[in-house]
From TrEMBL:
Subunit organization: Binds (via the PDZ domain) to isoform 2A of SYNJ2 (via the unique motif in the C-terminus). Interacts (via C-terminus) with RALBP1. Interacts (via PDZ domain) with ACVR2A (via C-terminus) and ACVR2B (via C-terminus). Forms a ternary complex with ACVR2A and RALBP1. Interacts with MAPK12. Interacts with DLL1; enhances DLL1 protein stability, and promotes notch signaling in endothelial cells.
SUPFAM superfamilies in the record: PDZ domain-like (SSF50156)
Domain of life (superkingdom): Eukaryota
Any one Gene Ontology molecular-function term assigned to this protein's record: protein kinase binding
Domain named PDZ: residues: 13-100
Gene: synj2bp
Keywords from the UniProt entry: Membrane, Mitochondrion, Mitochondrion outer membrane, Transmembrane, Transmembrane helix
Main localization category: mitochondrion
Membrane-spanning intervals of the chain: 121-139
Protein name per the record: Synaptojanin-2-binding protein
Localization, UniProt: Mitochondrion outer membrane
GO biological process, one term: receptor localization to synapse
GO cellular component, one term: mitochondrial outer membrane
Length: 146
């Protein structure tokens, strides 16, 4: 991820009920483990299938968690943030800054990655066809008597 500034912000409050496997997501970041350049924030790294966060559906990978049960996560170490999550109780309220397309590295278009790969493959096949035609014409010209 790069450290670009959010061009549009969307802060949401999400209430989750801790399930058998916890809240169902992993975090990264903190003052000791910056995930985003020049940002000490705590970010959602992975949403676990069938976990509380996945079942709720609002929390996404790349979202920045601003607070948990009213406790701000700004300028916290990664370990301190993890401890806050572990001791948050059964009902947990998260204040979350939703990720924006301008915040993430990688493609920003709406085209899925597999379609982009298919387009690249099509271009390569077309180029191979052109090369084959050129080779055929070249070889045909070599056979002509002088």
């Amino acid at each position: 991820m790069n450290g670009s500034v959010h061009s549009s912000t969307s802060v949401v409050d999400i209430k989750l009920k801790r399930g058998p496997a916890g809240l169902g997501f992993n975090i990264v970041g903190g003052v000791d483990q910056q995930y985003v350049a020049n940002d000490n924030g705590i970010y959602v790294a992975k949403i676990k299938e069938d976990g509380a966060a996945a079942l709720d559906g609002r929390l996404e990978e790349g979202d920045k968690i601003l607070a948990i049960n009213g406790v701000k996560l700004e300028d916290r170490t990664h370990k301190h943030a993890v401890d806050l999550f572990r001791t948050a109780g059964e009902n947990v309220e998260l204040r979350v800054l939703k990720k924006t397309p301008h915040h993430m590295n990688g493609p920003t278009g709406s085209q899925p990655e597999h379609e982009s790969s298919a387009s690249s493959l099509g271009i390569l096949v077309a180029l191979a066809g052109v090369a084959a035609v050129c080779a055929f014409i070249y070889m045909r010209n070599l056979r002509k008597p002088f």
